[in-house]
Amino acid sequence: MQGMKREFIRWGILGTAQISIRAVAPAIQASTNGRLVAVASRDPQKAADLYSFVPGLRIYADYQELLDDPAIDAVYIPLPNSLHAEWAIKAAEAGKHVLCEKPLAVTVEEAKEMIEAAEEHNVLLMEAFMYRFHPQIQWALKQIHAGEIGQIKLVRASFTIDIRDEPENIRLKPELAGGSLVDLGCYAVNLCHAVYGQAPRSVSARVHVVKPGGVDLAMAAILDYGEGRYGLIDSGFEGPRRQSVEIVGDLGTLTIPVPFAIRNMEGIVFAMKNGQMAERNFPMVDQYQLQVEHFAECVLTGKEPERSLSESLENLATIEAIYEAAGHDWPIL
């Protein structure tokens, strides 16, 4: 992919997802190399109201109309999981670069089709795992890969929220490919891959599903990376909001109290080695802004993203393996 001869890219967004309103659209507006110029929604007035903080924004009543706009360079797709592949492929066919929310697709096969479309039309496709751009995660991974806590033996990662009072939440809808694993557990899967640099050799798992054809409301899995290296991960929709990561090496540990959804607060990593605890603090940053700036830099210069699509494929394969090990039919469409 060749770079573009301009100072910033012109963004479009498909839909009015909360993640877009609260985080990504403001991040684009604050970025040094991007501008939000258009949004598409089946309810244009709702979109105009929700994105009123963006001056001069063009509002389209149809996703395809936005993709057909020659004044847009890239699109951000925060649509329900079941729509990622369809609209990422259509965006690529329209010559638009694509930043797609996690998980990249519902299945490995869908993701492969998305990647093929991006390659065929010479556009950038990137999965939006914003937490990987936070300095606390980048510092922790640097320590790990430098061997500062020895050979990694265990990664514990948890992410749960409580949406029991939100029956219409799209995360609970099987037809939209919802579920705790694909919405929250995917962060833990992604982190394990970032630490070990590979997909697990085998998987054991359980999921909590309350009715036939329903989504998983909770998930717990053991990922076996061989040679005594494991990942213990869990996610859920029926508990207190919690997230945590502990990475255990044979020489020490790293603990990250708020590893994934960290906003409006400083980052902290606790390092334990030789019986001594050290605290590393990181200033408050907008990891969404860092993500969109990295994406735009790649579009403008032609450089490769820090995260490869092969990692995205392996993460999706792990998600499929977890569901299979738990006896949960996936996808439920």
Provide the CATH topology of the largest domain. Answer: Dihydrodipicolinate Reductase, domain 2
Residues in β-strands, percent: 25-35%
Broad CATH class of the largest domain: Alpha Beta
Number of H/I helices: 9
User: Overall pLDDT, averaged?
Assistant: 96
Helix coverage percent of residues?
25-40%
Q: How would you write the strand order of the largest sheet?
A: 8-9-10-7-11-12-13-14
* Sequence of secondary-structure elements: EHEHEHEHEHEHEHEEEEEEEHH
pLDDT under 50 segments (min length 5)?
none
Q: What is the CATH architecture annotation of the largest domain?
A: 2-Layer Sandwich
| Radius of gyration of CA atoms, rounded to a whole number | 20 Å
Total strand segments = 14
Task: Return the structural class.
Answer: alpha/beta
> What is the CATH H-level superfamily of the largest domain?
Dihydrodipicolinate Reductase, domain 2
Task: Compute the separation of the termini in Å.
Answer: 34 Å
Largest sheet: 8 strands, mixed
Number of domains: 2
Fold and architecture overview:
The chain is of the alpha/beta class and 333 residues long. The chain has two domains: 9-128, Rossmann fold; 132-289 and 315-325, Dihydrodipicolinate Reductase, domain 2, CATH 3.30.360. It has nine helices and 14 strands. It has helices at residues 18-30, 44-50, 63-67, 84-93, 108-120, 135-145, 180-196, 287-301, 309-325; strands at residues 9-14, 34-40, 58-60, 74-77, 97-101, 125-128, 152-162, 202-208, 218-226, 229-236, 238-249, 252-256, 267-273, 276-282. It has an eight-stranded mixed β-sheet with strand order 8-9-10-7-11-12-13-14. It has a six-stranded parallel β-sheet with strand order 3-2-1-4-5-6, sandwiched between helices. Helix 7 (180-196) crosses helix 9. The longest helix is centred in the middle third of the chain and has 17 residues, at 180-196. It is globular. The relative contact order is 0.16. The model has no long low-confidence stretch (mean pLDDT 96). Keywords: Oxidoreductase. Belongs to the Gfo/Idh/MocA family. InterPro entries: Gfo/Idh/MocA-like_OxRdtase_N, Gfo/Idh/MocA_domain, GFO_IDH_MocA-like_dom, NAD(P)-bd_dom_sf.
